[in-house]
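Record type: monomer structure entry
Structure origin: computed from sequence
Chain ID: A
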Amino acid sequence: MIYLDAAATTPVRPEVLDLVWPLLTTEYGNPSSRHTVGEAAARALDYARDTAAGVLGVRTGDIVFTSGGTESNNLALKGLALAAPRGRHLVTSAVEHSSVRASADYLARHHGFAVDVVPVDRAGRIDPDALRGLLRPDTTLVSVMAVNNEVGTIQPVAEAAADARAVGALFHTDAVQAAGWLDLRPLAAVSDALSLSGHKIGGLKGAGLLMLRGRLEAEPVLHGGGQERGRRSGTENVAGAVSTAVALRLAAEAVSAGGPQEAYGAYLTRAIVEGLRGDGGAAVPVPTGDPERRVPGIVSFCFPGTSGEAVLLELERRGVVCSSGSACHAGSDEPSPVLLAMGYDPDTALTALRLSFGRGVKEAELTTAARSVVAAVRAVAGG
C-alpha cells in the first residue's frame, strides 16, 4: 500500500514513540499531583512546553496544550473574541478549516458577532485588498490559515497580520498544515495565536497546541481545575503534549535541512497531467490550488466527468490510499466548500482528489502513484 493521505493523519514517528511509551506505562502520573510520580509527569510536561516554545520562538507561557487543531482553533476564536472588549466583528477567509468556520458561526449565532468572509481567487489565495476593505474600527479578530488543507495554497499571513494589527485587531492563523513544510517562527512572530496538531506530523492523535500570547485575555472553552494557566482546564495529556512537541521539533529540523521532497509536489502534478494529456478516453485533469505558492506535500486535482469517490475506490484497489479532500468533510455528499469558494461548480468539485505526503515519501512511491492515478481515472472515465 502507498499511503498518500498525510494531510489527514500520519503514523507516530519512532522517535516520538520511544519518548512517550514510558509516559503511557510506567511514568503515568498526574502532573498536578504533589508526589514523586506526579512531579516526574510535571517535568515531562515542562520539557514539552520548553521544546514547543523553542521551535516557535515564543515564551513557554505562550504554549497551551490542547486535544488538537480543532480545539486550538475553537479556543483561539471563541477565547479571544469573547475576552476582547473592543468590538464584535470577526473576519475569516472563505477557505478556512471547518473548525474555524463553525466557531465563527457559533459566535455569530449565540453572541451577536458580525462575521465577514474574505473571498479567494481561483488558486485559493485571499485578496489582501478585499481583506483591508472588510476591516473596521470594531474588528476584534482576524483568522487566516497559513496553508489550506485541501489544495495546499500558502496564504499571505504576514500581510494579513499587519493589516489586522493596523486597525488594532488580533490575528490568528491555523498552521496545522504548515508544520513540516514551512518555517513556523515567522508565522508565530506575526500572530497573536497559532494552532497546531500533533498527528499531522508524527505525533499522537488527540493532541495539539495553541500558541497564545501570554499577555492576552482568553475566555476558556473548557472550565474546571484551571490547568494550562487557566486557559484549558482538564488533566494534562502529558504523553500527547510530549509527542506533539517532539514531532514539532523533528519537523522543524526537517524543514531546515530541506531535501528532494521540496520538488515532489510539482513532479507528481506533472506526471499526472502528462499521463492524461490528449487522452480522449479520460477526463482532463485540472490541478487545483496555487501552482507557485503552495506546500509540496499536498497535490490536488479535479477530473471533470468522473466521480471522485469512484476514482478513490479504483485507486485503493490498485494499492494507493488518498482522499477527496478534508478528512473532516469525508462521508458528505456535498461538494467541498473550499473548492466552491475557489469558483469551481458543484459537479466539478465532486470530482476532487487530494494526494498528500510527508517528507518520508519516496520518489518511486510517487511515480507508482502517478501511474495508478492515470490508470484509475481512465478506468472510471472510460466506464
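Annotation 1: The radius of gyration is 21 Å.
Annotation 2: The chain has a mean pLDDT of 95.
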